[in-house]
Task: inverse folding
């Protein structure tokens, strides 16, 4: 048994199991071969069959996760068998593992289990929705669409439990994603369902989701505005045929939002348009009360190709209120915005006593590729992390 496998066995046995159970030699003997097979990515059908049928639910859960992580489709029948296990955590793990397997032959089995009248935990139902979204075949897409439209042959209470995860993971369906159904939920009375639908619409750059996300920037709930701002970038605007001026205006208004998360996402999305006329308003965010907003503003300025932006980035290194994260982001941003300023700033960091600064300076230096001597010197560094950056 390798050291890694020993650690995996220890990790598997420590948790909800009692102290006595964690020390049970029979349990260790049952779990060890399963973790060894998973570690080697070798599907041992005999070992996993024994594991799936073991009396101990911990062993069954370990077997299920191992099959899913290995990804060999010969294990699909064993996972489908586990969907009828008496332990709710085993069933949840089986749905999760089927999602990892991405085997379309399991779609019917998953749907059949969801339509059964017996009990399923909320966790298991959520994992089932993710599994179907991951498999992303015609049958799973049709079922997800039925859940979103309320037209499926499934109990309403179970449908309600499926809905949040089905919305959030709908983007995994790719071109099969029922975008029009998601647009409906973008205006739902539930804020939780609104942001989940907008997440999938935005992540897929769905052409029909443009108006929904623009409206989302004016939502009363911060998480909805934050989600909308995250995806309203140039690529999404192009895909949804939104007028860039309208999107940029909406995002610029969001830079003064009360919620820091909205400001962070809005400045990132606005920067994707590379419109230098917004450099001034973004520079103001360098004094924002939230440290994450300040860092996001530095990164955004690096994408604007503006003299105002380049000057503000360079000045970050001299600001007394600049955090290390701001200066680190500024080093990378200078590589985009001002090569001359980078050549002044990077040597100072290359000689820093902080290995993080030396490594970051090497990364930024490499993007302008003006001098290879710094990389050669890095190979003689005492810190292996800096050597790695040099390589």
Result:
């Amino acid at each position: 048994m390798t050291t890694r496998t020993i650690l995996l066995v220890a990790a598997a046995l420590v948790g909800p199991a009692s102290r006595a159970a964690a020390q049970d030699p029979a349990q260790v003997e049952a779990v060890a071969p399963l973790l060894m097979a998973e570690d080697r990515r070798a599907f041992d059908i005999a070992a996993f069959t024994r594991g799936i049928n073991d009396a101990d639910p911990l062993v069954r859960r370990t077997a299920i996760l191992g099959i899913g992580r290995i990804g060999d489709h010969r294990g699909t029948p064993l996972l489908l068998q586990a969907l009828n296990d008496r332990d709710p955590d085993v069933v949840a793990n089986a749905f999760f593992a089927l999602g990892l397997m991405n085997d379309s032959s399991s779609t019917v089995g998953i749907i059949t289990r969801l339509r059964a009248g017996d009990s399923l935990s909320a966790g298991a139902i959520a994992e089932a929705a993710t599994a179907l979204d991951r498999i992303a075949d015609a049958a799973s897409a049709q079922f997800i669409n039925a859940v979103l439209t309320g037209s499926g042959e499934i109990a309403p209470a179970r449908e309600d439990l499926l809905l949040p995860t089905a919305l959030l993971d709908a983007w995994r369906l790719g071109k099969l994603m029922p975008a029009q159904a998601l647009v409906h939920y973008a205006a739902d009375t539930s804020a939780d369902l609104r942001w989940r639908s907008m997440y999938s619409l935005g992540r897929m750059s769905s052409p029909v989701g443009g108006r929904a996300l623009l409206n989302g920037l004016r939502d009363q709930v911060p998480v909805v505005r934050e989600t909308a701002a995250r995806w309203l970038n140039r690529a999404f605007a192009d895909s949804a045929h939104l007028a860039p001026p309208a999107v940029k205006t909406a995002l610029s208004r969001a830079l003064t939002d009360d919620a820091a998360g909205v400001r962070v996402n809005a400045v990132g999305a606005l920067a994707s348009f590379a419109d230098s006329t917004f450099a001034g308003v973004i520079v103001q965010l360098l004094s924002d009360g939230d440290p994450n907003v300040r860092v996001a503003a530095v990164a955004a300025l690096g994408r604007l190709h503006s003299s105002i932006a380049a000057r503000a980035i360079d000045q970050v290194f001299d600001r007394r209120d600049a955090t290390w994260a701001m200066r680190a982001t500024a080093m990378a941003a200078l590589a985009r915005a001002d090569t001359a300023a980078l050549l002044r700033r990077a040597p100072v960091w290359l000689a820093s006593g902080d290995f993080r600064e030396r490594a970051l300076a090497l990364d930024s230096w490499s993007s302008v590729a003006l001098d290879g001597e710094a990389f050669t010197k890095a190979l003689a560094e005492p810190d292996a992390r800096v050597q790695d950056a040099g390589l």
